[in-house]
Amino acid sequence: MGIRAGAAAGAVLILAALLSGCGIVPVLPGREPFGEVTGSEDQAREVYETFSQRLRQEAPEDWEGWSLSWSEAGWDIDIYRTQAYTLAFCEAHGGGDYLWYDGWLYWNSHGTVCYRAMDWAELGTEDFAAQLWQMSQELLDRTPDELTYQYIPMASGNQHLLKARYVLKEEEPGDYGDLSAYLSGGGDYDTVNFTWQDVGDLDQGVGRDNVCAHILFFPFDGSTDLQAERKLWSFGYGCGLSERNIPAISVQQDDRAGCQAVIAAMDFAALRDRAVYQDTLAFPGLPFHIGETSGGPGAP
Q1: Average pLDDT for 267-294
Q2: Can you give the pTM of this predicted structure?
Q3: Which of 82, 142, 172, 291 could tie 223 with a disulfide, CB 3.0–4.6 Å?
Q4: Is residue 157, in this structure, part of any structural domain at all?
């Protein structure tokens, strides 16, 4: 029996290795795919109570750095407010790309570039982010419909993930708010995630008017976001401001000075010299209030 058990165990390990090589992560008996450990319901509830009490006391001005994404049928908007990069990017499906950066709005579609001067305040992102912060605070007064607490050994930094889901409409379980944070063993955190989703009118078809907002809050001082750098790099490369295409994110992490040098060398003033000034150019508008739809792309 011992030989058979050993052979069976060896077969499991060989299969696991083969599946891993194919990009399939097997779940071995008694283990989750990457060694995650899920805490009990009582542990999750205890951690959540401590976390929610601390989050209620947080001052919004201490969390003025954020990365925001807004998805709606037809376009995806990403906005970043970090010390390293403050920019807004929109991919309008079939309608070109928009970039707000350093006081200018740009639009590029198949090599046709338009631009105009535009203040950051005109985007309305500060008010939108404040709405999302307020919504996350209001959810703390509710009892989560789902609550999980996991140890994630592969996570960098804090390795304990707390996730709370609040169903916003009983008749529409797809309408929800998610609040999550990676915690240290002592319960400290340096980022807070909030997601809001509205599935829309399902009678019109799944995904037709689905909208989703996701925001990651963090302290502003010293902040950066490699995704913000990638959006800026992508737009500049598409406009011919760099011959170097976007590298793998691991390269960004390992070669910060080199990547920052590429961004710094992008001559947006030269781009404006050969682009068309369009005073009606508008960045796709975020909704004034959550639950509304945005203003849509404002291509020339």
Answers
A1: 82
A2: 0.81
A3: 82
A4: yes
